[in-house]
Protein backbone atom coordinates (compact mmCIF):
# COMPACT_ATOMS: atom_id res chain seq x y z
CA UNK A 1 0.00 0.00 0.00
CA UNK A 2 1.27 3.46 -0.78
CA UNK A 3 0.40 6.84 0.63
CA UNK A 4 -0.39 9.91 -1.39
CA UNK A 5 2.34 12.11 -2.77
CA UNK A 6 0.99 15.41 -4.10
CA UNK A 7 -1.73 15.95 -6.71
CA UNK A 8 -4.32 15.74 -3.99
CA UNK A 9 -7.06 18.07 -5.10
CA UNK A 10 -7.27 17.12 -8.73
CA UNK A 11 -7.16 13.41 -8.11
CA UNK A 12 -9.48 13.31 -5.16
CA UNK A 13 -12.05 14.86 -7.49
CA UNK A 14 -11.64 11.87 -9.76
CA UNK A 15 -12.08 9.56 -6.82
CA UNK A 16 -15.28 11.29 -5.81
CA UNK A 17 -16.71 10.80 -9.27
CA UNK A 18 -15.89 7.13 -9.11
CA UNK A 19 -17.48 6.90 -5.71
CA UNK A 20 -20.62 8.81 -6.61
CA UNK A 21 -21.38 7.51 -10.08
CA UNK A 22 -24.41 5.28 -9.81
CA UNK A 23 -24.42 2.91 -12.74
CA UNK A 24 -27.65 1.10 -12.13
CA UNK A 25 -27.66 -2.16 -14.02
CA UNK A 26 -30.36 -4.83 -14.15
CA UNK A 27 -32.24 -5.89 -11.04
CA UNK A 28 -29.79 -7.74 -8.81
CA UNK A 29 -30.94 -11.08 -7.43
CA UNK A 30 -30.46 -11.34 -3.67
CA UNK A 31 -27.77 -13.85 -2.67
CA UNK A 32 -28.65 -16.32 0.08
CA UNK A 33 -25.98 -15.94 2.81
CA UNK A 34 -26.65 -19.44 4.10
CA UNK A 35 -25.48 -21.00 0.84
CA UNK A 36 -22.35 -21.18 -1.30
CA UNK A 37 -23.18 -20.68 -4.99
CA UNK A 38 -26.56 -22.26 -4.29
CA UNK A 39 -25.25 -25.16 -2.17
CA UNK A 40 -25.76 -25.59 1.52
CA UNK A 41 -22.80 -24.59 3.71
CA UNK A 42 -21.25 -27.72 5.19
CA UNK A 43 -18.22 -28.22 7.41
CA UNK A 44 -17.56 -31.96 7.20
CA UNK A 45 -14.37 -33.75 6.25
CA UNK A 46 -12.90 -33.54 2.74
CA UNK A 47 -10.84 -36.02 0.74
CA UNK A 48 -11.36 -39.70 0.02
CA UNK A 49 -14.64 -41.06 1.32
CA UNK A 50 -14.12 -43.68 4.03
CA UNK A 51 -13.98 -47.24 2.75
CA UNK A 52 -13.55 -46.34 -0.91
CA UNK A 53 -11.70 -48.92 -3.00
CA UNK A 54 -8.49 -47.88 -4.68
CA UNK A 55 -9.01 -46.97 -8.35
CA UNK A 56 -5.80 -48.82 -9.17
CA UNK A 57 -4.42 -46.45 -11.83
CA UNK A 58 -0.81 -47.31 -12.74
CA UNK A 59 1.67 -44.74 -11.43
CA UNK A 60 5.12 -44.62 -12.93
CA UNK A 61 7.79 -44.21 -10.22
CA UNK A 62 5.37 -44.26 -7.30
CA UNK A 63 6.19 -45.65 -3.86
CA UNK A 64 2.68 -46.96 -3.17
CA UNK A 65 2.36 -44.71 -0.10
CA UNK A 66 -0.61 -42.72 1.14
CA UNK A 67 0.19 -39.59 -0.88
CA UNK A 68 0.49 -41.51 -4.17
CA UNK A 69 -2.80 -43.23 -3.40
CA UNK A 70 -4.53 -39.95 -2.70
CA UNK A 71 -3.09 -38.38 -5.86
CA UNK A 72 -3.82 -41.33 -8.19
CA UNK A 73 -7.37 -41.65 -6.86
CA UNK A 74 -7.88 -37.92 -7.30
CA UNK A 75 -6.74 -38.28 -10.93
CA UNK A 76 -9.15 -41.18 -11.43
CA UNK A 77 -12.00 -39.13 -9.98
CA UNK A 78 -11.26 -36.00 -12.02
CA UNK A 79 -11.03 -38.14 -15.15
CA UNK A 80 -14.43 -39.64 -14.34
CA UNK A 81 -15.81 -36.13 -14.12
CA UNK A 82 -14.44 -35.25 -17.55
CA UNK A 83 -15.59 -38.52 -19.11
CA UNK A 84 -19.10 -37.33 -18.28
CA UNK A 85 -18.76 -33.63 -18.88
CA UNK A 86 -16.51 -33.25 -21.93
CA UNK A 87 -19.05 -35.04 -24.19
CA UNK A 88 -22.03 -33.38 -22.47
CA UNK A 89 -20.72 -29.82 -22.65
CA UNK A 90 -18.17 -29.73 -25.45
CA UNK A 91 -19.30 -32.69 -27.53
CA UNK A 92 -15.87 -34.37 -27.29
CA UNK A 93 -14.79 -37.69 -25.89
CA UNK A 94 -12.35 -37.51 -22.99
CA UNK A 95 -9.24 -39.56 -23.61
CA UNK A 96 -7.58 -40.51 -20.28
CA UNK A 97 -4.05 -39.34 -19.60
CA UNK A 98 -1.28 -41.38 -21.18
CA UNK A 99 1.01 -41.48 -18.13
CA UNK A 100 0.97 -40.56 -14.44
CA UNK A 101 4.34 -40.01 -12.80
CA UNK A 102 5.19 -39.73 -9.12
CA UNK A 103 8.60 -38.45 -8.06
CA UNK A 104 10.36 -37.25 -4.94
CA UNK A 105 11.80 -33.75 -5.31
CA UNK A 106 14.24 -34.64 -2.54
CA UNK A 107 15.56 -37.62 -4.47
CA UNK A 108 18.19 -37.92 -7.19
CA UNK A 109 15.80 -36.86 -9.90
CA UNK A 110 14.78 -38.23 -13.25
CA UNK A 111 13.94 -36.64 -16.53
CA UNK A 112 10.28 -35.99 -17.34
CA UNK A 113 9.35 -34.07 -20.46
CA UNK A 114 12.91 -32.85 -20.79
CA UNK A 115 13.25 -31.48 -17.23
CA UNK A 116 14.93 -32.98 -14.16
CA UNK A 117 12.73 -33.54 -11.11
CA UNK A 118 15.60 -33.05 -8.65
CA UNK A 119 14.50 -30.22 -6.34
CA UNK A 120 11.32 -29.66 -8.37
CA UNK A 121 8.67 -28.99 -5.70
CA UNK A 122 5.77 -28.97 -8.09
CA UNK A 123 3.04 -30.80 -9.97
CA UNK A 124 2.71 -30.35 -13.71
CA UNK A 125 1.17 -31.44 -16.99
CA UNK A 126 3.15 -31.64 -20.19
CA UNK A 127 1.16 -31.80 -23.38
CA UNK A 128 3.92 -33.24 -25.57
CA UNK A 129 3.86 -36.56 -23.69
CA UNK A 130 0.40 -36.16 -22.10
CA UNK A 131 1.84 -36.69 -18.63
CA UNK A 132 0.65 -35.53 -15.22
CA UNK A 133 3.46 -35.65 -12.66
CA UNK A 134 3.54 -34.80 -8.95
CA UNK A 135 6.08 -34.43 -6.21
CA UNK A 136 5.15 -36.95 -3.52
CA UNK A 137 8.10 -35.97 -1.34
CA UNK A 138 7.66 -32.19 -1.04
CA UNK A 139 4.64 -30.45 -2.53
CA UNK A 140 1.76 -32.84 -1.97
CA UNK A 141 2.56 -33.91 1.61
CA UNK A 142 3.14 -30.27 2.56
CA UNK A 143 -0.23 -29.21 1.13
CA UNK A 144 -1.95 -32.22 2.68
CA UNK A 145 -0.46 -31.69 6.15
CA UNK A 146 -0.53 -27.91 6.36
CA UNK A 147 -3.85 -27.28 4.57
CA UNK A 148 -5.74 -30.52 4.00
CA UNK A 149 -6.61 -33.12 1.35
CA UNK A 150 -8.88 -30.72 -0.58
CA UNK A 151 -5.71 -28.79 -1.47
CA UNK A 152 -4.24 -31.94 -3.05
CA UNK A 153 -7.47 -32.61 -4.94
CA UNK A 154 -7.37 -29.06 -6.29
CA UNK A 155 -3.76 -29.37 -7.49
CA UNK A 156 -4.49 -32.58 -9.43
CA UNK A 157 -7.72 -31.16 -10.84
CA UNK A 158 -5.75 -28.11 -11.99
CA UNK A 159 -3.18 -30.22 -13.83
CA UNK A 160 -5.89 -32.28 -15.53
CA UNK A 161 -7.53 -28.97 -16.44
CA UNK A 162 -4.45 -28.41 -18.62
CA UNK A 163 -5.01 -31.82 -20.23
CA UNK A 164 -8.61 -30.81 -20.91
CA UNK A 165 -7.62 -27.57 -22.61
CA UNK A 166 -5.12 -29.44 -24.74
CA UNK A 167 -7.92 -31.87 -25.76
CA UNK A 168 -10.15 -28.89 -26.54
CA UNK A 169 -7.49 -27.51 -28.86
CA UNK A 170 -6.20 -24.49 -26.91
CA UNK A 171 -2.93 -23.71 -28.70
CA UNK A 172 0.21 -24.53 -26.73
CA UNK A 173 1.37 -20.99 -27.53
CA UNK A 174 -1.58 -19.39 -25.69
CA UNK A 175 -0.44 -16.92 -22.97
CA UNK A 176 0.36 -18.67 -19.67
CA UNK A 177 -2.19 -16.63 -17.76
CA UNK A 178 -5.01 -17.88 -20.04
CA UNK A 179 -3.97 -21.51 -19.56
CA UNK A 180 -3.63 -21.11 -15.80
CA UNK A 181 -6.88 -19.23 -15.30
CA UNK A 182 -8.73 -21.85 -17.33
CA UNK A 183 -7.14 -24.65 -15.29
CA UNK A 184 -8.18 -22.97 -11.99
CA UNK A 185 -11.67 -22.55 -13.42
CA UNK A 186 -11.91 -26.23 -14.45
CA UNK A 187 -10.80 -27.10 -10.91
CA UNK A 188 -13.82 -25.20 -9.61
CA UNK A 189 -16.15 -27.03 -12.02
CA UNK A 190 -14.87 -30.43 -10.84
CA UNK A 191 -15.06 -29.52 -7.13
CA UNK A 192 -18.65 -28.36 -7.56
CA UNK A 193 -19.50 -31.88 -8.77
CA UNK A 194 -17.78 -33.30 -5.70
CA UNK A 195 -19.52 -30.80 -3.38
CA UNK A 196 -22.86 -31.81 -4.88
CA UNK A 197 -22.15 -35.37 -3.73
CA UNK A 198 -21.85 -36.76 -7.26
CA UNK A 199 -18.35 -38.19 -6.92
CA UNK A 200 -18.29 -41.84 -5.88
CA UNK A 201 -14.83 -41.50 -4.33
CA UNK A 202 -14.32 -38.01 -2.90
CA UNK A 203 -16.12 -35.49 -0.73
CA UNK A 204 -15.58 -31.80 -0.10
CA UNK A 205 -17.45 -29.52 2.31
CA UNK A 206 -18.43 -26.07 1.06
CA UNK A 207 -17.24 -24.38 4.25
CA UNK A 208 -14.05 -25.92 5.61
CA UNK A 209 -13.23 -27.91 2.43
CA UNK A 210 -13.44 -24.99 0.01
CA UNK A 211 -11.56 -22.82 2.53
CA UNK A 212 -8.72 -25.33 2.09
CA UNK A 213 -8.86 -24.92 -1.68
CA UNK A 214 -8.84 -21.11 -1.47
CA UNK A 215 -5.96 -21.26 0.99
CA UNK A 216 -4.01 -23.46 -1.44
CA UNK A 217 -4.68 -21.00 -4.28
CA UNK A 218 -3.45 -18.20 -2.02
CA UNK A 219 -0.26 -20.06 -1.17
CA UNK A 220 0.61 -20.89 -4.77
CA UNK A 221 -0.18 -17.38 -6.07
CA UNK A 222 2.32 -15.37 -8.08
CA UNK A 223 4.43 -13.21 -5.82
CA UNK A 224 3.73 -9.49 -5.80
CA UNK A 225 5.48 -7.87 -8.73
CA UNK A 226 4.59 -10.45 -11.37
CA UNK A 227 2.19 -9.00 -13.96
CA UNK A 228 -0.52 -11.15 -15.50
CA UNK A 229 0.98 -10.64 -18.94
CA UNK A 230 4.37 -11.97 -17.84
CA UNK A 231 5.55 -15.21 -19.32
CA UNK A 232 4.81 -18.01 -16.83
CA UNK A 233 2.25 -15.95 -14.85
CA UNK A 234 -0.28 -18.04 -12.92
CA UNK A 235 -2.25 -15.17 -11.38
CA UNK A 236 -2.31 -13.39 -8.04
CA UNK A 237 -4.52 -14.94 -5.34
CA UNK A 238 -7.43 -12.62 -6.11
CA UNK A 239 -7.54 -13.61 -9.80
CA UNK A 240 -6.89 -17.31 -9.12
CA UNK A 241 -9.73 -17.45 -6.62
CA UNK A 242 -11.98 -15.59 -9.08
CA UNK A 243 -11.32 -18.14 -11.83
CA UNK A 244 -11.94 -21.00 -9.41
CA UNK A 245 -15.23 -19.45 -8.30
CA UNK A 246 -16.38 -18.89 -11.90
CA UNK A 247 -15.91 -22.60 -12.59
CA UNK A 248 -17.60 -23.63 -9.35
CA UNK A 249 -20.56 -21.33 -9.91
CA UNK A 250 -21.04 -21.48 -13.68
CA UNK A 251 -19.39 -24.71 -14.85
CA UNK A 252 -16.85 -25.66 -17.55
CA UNK A 253 -18.46 -23.71 -20.42
CA UNK A 254 -17.58 -20.51 -18.52
CA UNK A 255 -13.97 -21.67 -18.22
CA UNK A 256 -13.56 -22.20 -21.96
CA UNK A 257 -14.55 -18.54 -22.47
CA UNK A 258 -11.46 -17.35 -20.61
CA UNK A 259 -9.17 -15.83 -23.22
CA UNK A 260 -6.69 -12.99 -23.38
CA UNK A 261 -9.32 -10.29 -23.65
CA UNK A 262 -11.43 -11.69 -20.85
CA UNK A 263 -8.43 -11.82 -18.52
CA UNK A 264 -7.32 -8.33 -19.56
CA UNK A 265 -10.76 -6.97 -18.68
CA UNK A 266 -10.80 -8.18 -15.08
CA UNK A 267 -7.26 -8.97 -13.97
CA UNK A 268 -6.15 -7.21 -10.80
CA UNK A 269 -2.58 -8.39 -11.23
CA UNK A 270 -1.21 -5.13 -12.51
CA UNK A 271 2.35 -4.49 -13.43
CA UNK A 272 3.08 -0.92 -12.40
CA UNK A 273 6.31 -0.48 -14.27
CA UNK A 274 9.29 -2.74 -13.85
CA UNK A 275 9.46 -5.85 -11.71
CA UNK A 276 11.86 -4.03 -9.39
CA UNK A 277 9.47 -1.11 -8.89
CA UNK A 278 6.73 -3.61 -8.14
CA UNK A 279 8.77 -5.41 -5.56
CA UNK A 280 9.74 -2.15 -3.91
CA UNK A 281 6.12 -1.02 -3.85
CA UNK A 282 4.99 -4.33 -2.39
CA UNK A 283 7.60 -4.06 0.32
CA UNK A 284 6.30 -0.64 1.35
CA UNK A 285 4.06 -1.51 4.23
CA UNK A 286 2.07 1.29 5.86
CA UNK A 287 1.49 1.08 9.63
CA UNK A 288 -1.93 2.01 10.90
CA UNK A 289 -0.52 3.61 14.04
CA UNK A 290 1.08 6.24 11.84
CA UNK A 291 -1.18 9.32 12.23
CA UNK A 292 -0.85 10.33 8.62
CA UNK A 293 -1.83 6.82 7.53
CA UNK A 294 -5.01 7.00 9.59
CA UNK A 295 -5.78 10.43 8.14
CA UNK A 296 -5.27 9.10 4.60
CA UNK A 297 -7.50 6.13 5.31
CA UNK A 298 -10.21 8.46 6.63
CA UNK A 299 -9.92 10.61 3.50
CA UNK A 300 -10.20 7.62 1.22
CA UNK A 301 -13.28 6.34 3.08
CA UNK A 302 -14.99 9.73 3.01
CA UNK A 303 -14.34 9.98 -0.69
CA UNK A 304 -15.66 6.52 -1.42
CA UNK A 305 -18.79 6.78 0.73
CA UNK A 306 -20.67 10.04 0.89
CA UNK A 307 -22.71 10.15 4.07
CA UNK A 308 -25.49 12.68 4.66
CA UNK A 309 -24.77 12.64 8.41
CA UNK A 310 -21.41 13.40 10.00
CA UNK A 311 -19.02 10.56 9.12
CA UNK A 312 -17.81 8.45 12.06
CA UNK A 313 -14.44 9.24 13.56
CA UNK A 314 -11.61 6.73 13.86
CA UNK A 315 -10.36 6.49 17.40
CA UNK A 316 -8.60 4.04 19.71
CA UNK A 317 -10.67 2.32 22.33
CA UNK A 318 -12.20 -0.87 23.64
CA UNK A 319 -14.32 -2.94 21.26
CA UNK A 320 -17.93 -1.83 21.17
CA UNK A 321 -20.96 -4.11 20.81
CA UNK A 322 -19.12 -7.16 19.51
CA UNK A 323 -19.81 -10.71 20.58
CA UNK A 324 -16.56 -12.22 19.32
CA UNK A 325 -13.14 -12.06 20.89
CA UNK A 326 -10.27 -10.29 19.21
CA UNK A 327 -12.31 -7.81 17.14
CA UNK A 328 -9.63 -5.32 16.19
CA UNK A 329 -12.12 -2.70 15.06
CA UNK A 330 -15.76 -2.08 15.91
CA UNK A 331 -18.45 0.39 14.93
CA UNK A 332 -20.20 2.21 17.77
CA UNK A 333 -23.29 3.74 16.27
CA UNK A 334 -24.29 5.72 19.36
CA UNK A 335 -20.95 7.43 19.72
CA UNK A 336 -20.60 7.60 15.92
CA UNK A 337 -17.08 6.31 16.08
CA UNK A 338 -14.97 3.35 15.04
CA UNK A 339 -12.93 1.99 17.91
CA UNK A 340 -9.57 0.56 16.93
CA UNK A 341 -7.17 -1.79 18.66
CA UNK A 342 -4.14 -0.24 17.05
CA UNK A 343 -1.63 -2.75 18.38
CA UNK A 344 -3.70 -5.63 17.05
CA UNK A 345 -4.20 -3.92 13.71
CA UNK A 346 -0.48 -3.26 13.36
CA UNK A 347 0.10 -6.93 14.15
CA UNK A 348 -2.12 -8.23 11.35
CA UNK A 349 -0.95 -5.33 9.17
CA UNK A 350 2.65 -6.52 9.32
CA UNK A 351 3.50 -9.18 6.72
CA UNK A 352 5.25 -12.35 7.84
CA UNK A 353 9.01 -12.35 7.56
CA UNK A 354 10.60 -15.22 5.71
CA UNK A 355 10.21 -18.40 7.74
CA UNK A 356 8.61 -16.62 10.68
CA UNK A 357 5.12 -16.13 11.99
CA UNK A 358 3.54 -12.79 11.28
CA UNK A 359 0.39 -11.03 10.29
CA UNK A 360 -0.91 -10.50 6.77
CA UNK A 361 -0.06 -7.04 5.48
CA UNK A 362 -1.18 -3.42 5.65
CA UNK A 363 -4.16 -3.79 3.34
CA UNK A 364 -5.72 -6.44 5.60
CA UNK A 365 -5.66 -3.98 8.52
CA UNK A 366 -6.92 -1.05 6.43
CA UNK A 367 -9.75 -3.14 4.99
CA UNK A 368 -10.85 -4.25 8.47
CA UNK A 369 -11.26 -0.62 9.45
CA UNK A 370 -13.00 0.16 6.14
CA UNK A 371 -15.44 -2.68 6.75
CA UNK A 372 -16.53 -1.06 10.03
CA UNK A 373 -16.92 2.29 8.28
CA UNK A 374 -19.35 0.75 5.79
CA UNK A 375 -21.63 -0.03 8.75
CA UNK A 376 -22.25 3.71 9.20
CA UNK A 377 -23.30 3.84 5.56
CA UNK A 378 -25.54 0.82 5.99
CA UNK A 379 -27.14 2.34 9.07
CA UNK A 380 -27.88 5.53 7.18
CA UNK A 381 -29.43 3.48 4.38
CA UNK A 382 -31.81 1.81 6.87
CA UNK A 383 -30.20 -1.66 6.60
CA UNK A 384 -29.94 -4.12 9.48
CA UNK A 385 -26.42 -4.18 10.86
CA UNK A 386 -26.48 -7.64 12.34
CA UNK A 387 -26.89 -11.06 10.78
CA UNK A 388 -25.29 -12.85 7.83
CA UNK A 389 -26.78 -10.59 5.16
CA UNK A 390 -25.19 -7.58 6.85
CA UNK A 391 -21.88 -9.49 6.89
CA UNK A 392 -22.18 -10.10 3.14
CA UNK A 393 -23.12 -6.50 2.42
CA UNK A 394 -20.15 -5.36 4.48
CA UNK A 395 -17.77 -7.49 2.41
CA UNK A 396 -19.36 -6.14 -0.77
CA UNK A 397 -19.02 -2.50 0.31
CA UNK A 398 -15.45 -3.07 1.49
CA UNK A 399 -14.71 -4.48 -1.96
CA UNK A 400 -16.27 -1.39 -3.48
CA UNK A 401 -14.05 0.83 -1.32
CA UNK A 402 -11.00 -1.15 -2.51
CA UNK A 403 -11.99 -0.42 -6.11
CA UNK A 404 -11.93 3.34 -5.42
CA UNK A 405 -8.31 3.26 -4.27
CA UNK A 406 -6.76 4.27 -7.52
CA UNK A 407 -3.39 5.71 -8.39
CA UNK A 408 -2.87 9.16 -7.01
CA UNK A 409 -5.61 9.10 -4.37
CA UNK A 410 -5.08 9.39 -0.62
CA UNK A 411 -4.01 5.74 -0.71
CA UNK A 412 -2.77 3.66 -3.62
CA UNK A 413 -3.03 -0.09 -4.00
CA UNK A 414 0.30 -1.86 -4.24
CA UNK A 415 0.78 -5.23 -5.91
CA UNK A 416 -0.26 -7.87 -3.39
CA UNK A 417 -2.78 -5.71 -1.52
CA UNK A 418 -5.89 -7.49 -2.80
CA UNK A 419 -4.25 -10.81 -1.98
CA UNK A 420 -3.97 -9.57 1.60
CA UNK A 421 -7.74 -9.06 1.56
CA UNK A 422 -8.15 -12.67 0.40
CA UNK A 423 -5.88 -13.86 3.22
CA UNK A 424 -7.87 -11.81 5.75
CA UNK A 425 -11.13 -13.33 4.50
CA UNK A 426 -9.71 -16.82 5.03
CA UNK A 427 -9.06 -16.20 8.71
CA UNK A 428 -11.52 -17.35 11.35
CA UNK A 429 -12.13 -13.80 12.60
CA UNK A 430 -12.37 -12.04 9.27
CA UNK A 431 -13.86 -8.59 9.89
CA UNK A 432 -14.13 -7.71 6.21
CA UNK A 433 -17.06 -10.13 6.01
CA UNK A 434 -18.50 -9.68 9.51
CA UNK A 435 -21.64 -7.99 10.83
CA UNK A 436 -21.67 -5.23 13.45
CA UNK A 437 -21.14 -7.78 16.22
CA UNK A 438 -18.03 -9.12 14.53
CA UNK A 439 -19.67 -12.37 13.43
CA UNK A 440 -18.10 -13.63 10.20
CA UNK A 441 -19.93 -15.31 7.31
CA UNK A 442 -19.34 -19.03 7.77
CA UNK A 443 -17.89 -19.83 4.32
CA UNK A 444 -14.75 -18.20 2.92
CA UNK A 445 -16.13 -18.76 -0.58
CA UNK A 446 -19.15 -16.55 0.20
CA UNK A 447 -16.97 -13.86 1.80
CA UNK A 448 -14.69 -13.54 -1.20
CA UNK A 449 -17.59 -13.68 -3.68
CA UNK A 450 -19.31 -10.75 -1.94
CA UNK A 451 -16.08 -8.73 -1.76
CA UNK A 452 -15.44 -9.27 -5.48
CA UNK A 453 -19.02 -8.29 -6.29
CA UNK A 454 -18.43 -4.91 -4.69
CA UNK A 455 -14.98 -4.58 -6.21
CA UNK A 456 -16.16 -5.16 -9.76
CA UNK A 457 -19.58 -3.49 -9.52
CA UNK A 458 -18.32 0.10 -9.79
CA UNK A 459 -21.38 1.18 -7.78
CA UNK A 460 -21.91 0.93 -4.05
CA UNK A 461 -25.70 0.79 -4.56
CA UNK A 462 -25.39 -2.65 -6.10
CA UNK A 463 -24.30 -4.07 -2.70
CA UNK A 464 -27.54 -2.93 -1.08
CA UNK A 465 -29.57 -4.38 -3.91
CA UNK A 466 -27.88 -7.74 -4.08
CA UNK A 467 -27.34 -8.32 -0.36
CA UNK A 468 -30.68 -7.52 1.25
ZN1 LIG B 1 -1.05 -24.80 -14.27
UniProtKB/TrEMBL annotation:
Domain of life: Bacteria
Signal peptide from the UniProt entry: 1-21
Keywords: Membrane, Signal, Transmembrane, Transmembrane helix
Membrane topology, from the record: Single-pass membrane protein
Cellular component aspect of the GO annotation: membrane
Subcellular location per the Swiss-Prot or TrEMBL entry: Membrane
Keyword Signal: yes
Pfam family, one: Zn_peptidase
Entry annotated with the keyword Heme: no
Name of the protein in question: Aminopeptidase
Lineage, top ranks: Bacteria, Bacillati, Actinomycetota, Actinomycetes, Pseudonocardiales
